[in-house]
Amino acid sequence: MEPQEQSNGALIGSVIIIIILIIGGIFFFKNVKRNTVPTNTETPTLNGNSTTSLEADANNIDLNNLDQ
After folding, report:
1. Residue 4 and residue 65: Cα distance in Å, rounded?
2. Residue-by-residue pLDDT tens, the chain, 68 positions
3. What predicted TM-score, i.e. pTM, was given to this entire model?
4. d(CA 9, CA 17)
5. In Å, how far are 9, 15, 45, 53, 66 from 49, measured between CA atoms?
């Protein structure tokens, strides 16, 4: 009876997959870091009383002729 030879194919395949995942993670991390927008601590201000002006605009919309 001959001794069975061990195959390293599964080990090599696993190492290649791990390397690909590491490279993909580094690529993804760099792209996300590059595309992030710095946050501004100031809140934007609107001219006038925005709630009142929006409500007035909503009340002035003519909805009678929409289905023609």
Report:
1. 84
2. 566 777 788 899 999 999 999 999 999 888 877 766 666 666 555 555 677 777 888 888 877 777 76
3. 0.43
4. 12
5. 70, 62, 10, 6, 29
Classify residue 37 by its DSSP letter: P
CA 27 to each of CA 12, 21, 46, 53, 66: distance values in angstroms, whole numbers, following the listed order? 23, 10, 40, 47, 50
Q: For residues 43 and 46, what is the distance between their CA atoms, to the nearest angstrom?
A: 10
Q: Residue 61 carries which side chain, given as an amino acid letter?
A: I
Tokens 């001794």 correspond to 3
